Amino acid sequence: MPSFTTFVAAIAGCSAIVNGAALPAENGLKTNALQRREVTKGSDHILSKREPVTVAILTAVGTAAATAVVNEAVQAAASFIGDIVNFDAGREAFTKQTTDAMMANNPDPARFQAAACYNQGFSVADPANIDGQSSVDFRLGVLNTDYECMYIAAPNQFFTEGDGGFINLSFTHTDRCTFDEETADLTLSNNKIVPLTIIKGAGHEHIPIPEGECAIIADFHSVKSQSSHSTPYLTTGFYRVVPGPTRYGEYDYEETKYVLKGQIDITDEATGKTHHLVAGDWAFFHVGSKAQFSTKTEGVAFYAVTRPMNDGHPNLVGREESTSKL
């Protein structure tokens, strides 16, 4: 089952507080709420009596399937809210309920990785990867505001541009997306997190040599590089880790890592599994892999990567033996 995360950001133009919460759901989905709102609210957005929330689709652009689901989600959210007196609370409930319903009834899960509702200016990196965009009029009595609700396909970026006034935003998205809590922008990755390839005890396997021979190659893994670097690279080096804060790696290149001594814990973010690697164990990180590194003691590994060199070892750079003839 895909994993969904909902971010709800309600930002006031004055003093604000921040409250983040993880809300478990019966269907196994995880909802995270990010809310920023003014500390002291006025009474301008509080009605004297309960009135029903009403919504209307003003315009809709996109495929019939996407716009139909957005319309159904908008209407269902308004029905869910019912009669209320607090306009701001209604708006926050509306955006979250709408994006949750849109993703729950996603017409193309392989393509659409996020649903958004927003009532301020915005831009996107790839307009062609927006579908079902609908302008929604949200009303409670004499109070009203407009929202843009839509599906977002990967790869893409959604940039929030509202400044001043009361902003209300909700994203519901898969784990292929990253929400920036500082800017309230959303980045959608083109690929899912790719699991690591692990072989325990690779270096301890016996390699038989045919009679009459003195050496043999024993290839055991091969991939075609998916690195986006325009120039091919092969960089080698050593990796050392000691107890301390967890280190995080996100790969846009390949890496093959062979543990020489000690112990290295590697958590594969694609599977959630932690691999306890010791001398002789081997790991391969694909383009799109994400991992966490730690150790309880110390670990040293040799690696080869398809990226340019970063910081060279001060005692090894320039140590290549001369290639000149004697």
UniProtKB/TrEMBL annotation:
- Source organism superkingdom: Eukaryota
- The signal sequence is 1-16
UniProt keyword terms in alphabetical order = Signal
One matching Pfam family is DUF7888
In this chain the DUF7888 domain maps to 54-187
Annotated (S)-ureidoglycine aminohydrolase cupin domain residues: 249-293
Instruction: Give the protein's recorded name.
Output: Uncharacterized protein
**Species:** Fusarium poae
